[in-house]
Amino acid sequence: MAGRKPTVSDEEILHVLSESDDPFLTTTEVAEQVDLSQPGMLKRLRDLEDAGYIDNKKAGNSNTWWITDIGRQIYDEEGEKNK
């Protein structure tokens, strides 16, 4: 099907970070798991960081991201709504 890919929700991104066995993921790792471009994912991750749901640290040439307590709470609340 031609056209733009459906939007990835914030909850999907928080899910990737929340359910990862690793304590943090790179932008590329998150992007690959939700099939979004790296530049698009970077913008989305920065928006989630601005909201306080995730945090990041530069490690070498990569940004690493992890879910915050606030992000985990939001993610858990959204999961409850969808049950």
Can you tell me about this structure?
The protein is α+β, with helices and mostly antiparallel strands. The protein has a domain at 24-81: Arc Repressor Mutant, subunit A (Orthogonal Bundle), CATH 1.10.10.10. The protein has helices at residues 10-19, 27-34, 38-50, 69-81; strands at 25-26, 54-59, 62-67. It has a three-stranded antiparallel β-sheet with strand order 1-3-2. Strand 2 and strand 3 form a beta hairpin. Helix 1 (10-19) crosses helix 4 and helix 2 (27-34) crosses helix 3. The longest helix is centred in the middle third of the chain and has 13 residues, at 38-50.
How many strand segments?
A: 3
SS class: alpha+beta
Global shape:
globular
Spans with pLDDT under 50 lasting ≥5 residues? Answer: none
Order of helices and strands: HEHHEEH
CATH architecture of the domain at 24-81: Orthogonal Bundle
> What is the CA-based Rg, rounded?
13 Å
Q: How many angstroms does the end-to-end distance come to?
A: 30 Å
Assign the CATH class of the domain at 24-81. Answer: Mainly Alpha
| Binned strand content | 15-25%
**Mean pLDDT across all residues, rounded?**
89
Enumerate the strands of the largest sheet in spatial order, edge to edge or round the barrel.
Answer: 1-3-2
Organism: Haloplanus rubicundus
InterPro entries: ArsR-like_HTH, WH-like_DNA-bd_sf, WH_DNA-bd_sf
Protein name: ArsR family transcriptional regulator
